[in-house]
Design a protein that fits this description.
By secondary structure, this protein is α+β, with helices and mostly antiparallel strands. It has one domain (39-189): C8orf32 fold. The chain is built from seven helices and eight strands, in the order ααααβαβαββββαββ.
Length: 190
């Protein structure tokens, strides 16, 4: 019988190799901000499967009637079932990777949520990122039935009467450095 590898030793070796080639990996993994829409993949197999399982809980699924509840369930899945991790290198995970691994950093989790929301039928769903003096803010938002909904990891789902009100809730004003994106667009917000 072959010896079973010691997982702690293997993980240590893998980490050493990754750290040795850290700068090369990060250079190859670089995406410009305008390329971020390529990360949102609402048609990828695992995202479609997850969106389908959410829709099944609301049978028969009707976008007009059920999307809000489906969005809350998608948020709960990402917020509660996807572990927050911080990798020692800058590395992009795609939504299928995040679902498979059950883990991702803040950007990975927001991209996954946006992918699921678009797969549930709402193309207005976007990831929004703002760079502030004290901290960066990242969330998802979408428009539905004349209202705007913000989904922030750890902070829940909140509704707003206008996009301006939503932006102010995130601390974004005309002097902010921010951007938003989904699978179809990237937009600088000034």
């Amino acid at each position: 019988m072959e010896d079973q590898p010691n997982l702690e030793v293997l993980n240590s070796i893998y980490l050493d190799v990754i750290m040795r080639y850290k700068s090369y990996i990060e250079e190859q993994e670089h995406l410009s901000v305008s390329e971020l829409p390529t990360l949102v993949t609402p048609k990828s197999p695992m995202v479609v499967l997850k969106a389908g399982s959410i829709k099944e809980t609301l049978e028969p699924y009707s976008f007009d009637h059920d999307f809000y509840e489906a969005s809350v369930r998608a948020y709960e899945f990402v917020n509660e079932e996807i572990q927050s991790i911080r990798l020692p290198i800058e590395f992009w995970l795609y939504p299928d990777d995040v679902i498979k691994l059950g883990a991702g950093d803040a950007m990975d989790k927001n991209v996954l949520l946006c992918s699921i929301l678009v797969a549930l039928g709402n193309p207005s769903s976007k990831v929004i990122v703002s760079f502030g003096d004290a901290e960066n803010v990242m969330a998802n938002y979408y428009e539905f039935k004349g209202a705007f909904y913000r989904l922030s990891m750890g902070a829940g789902v909140r509704s707003y009467a206008s996009k301006e009100e939503l932006m102010l809730s995130l601390g974004i004003d005309k002097d902010s450095t921010a951007y938003e994106f989904n699978d179809q667009l990237y937009l600088d917000i000034n």
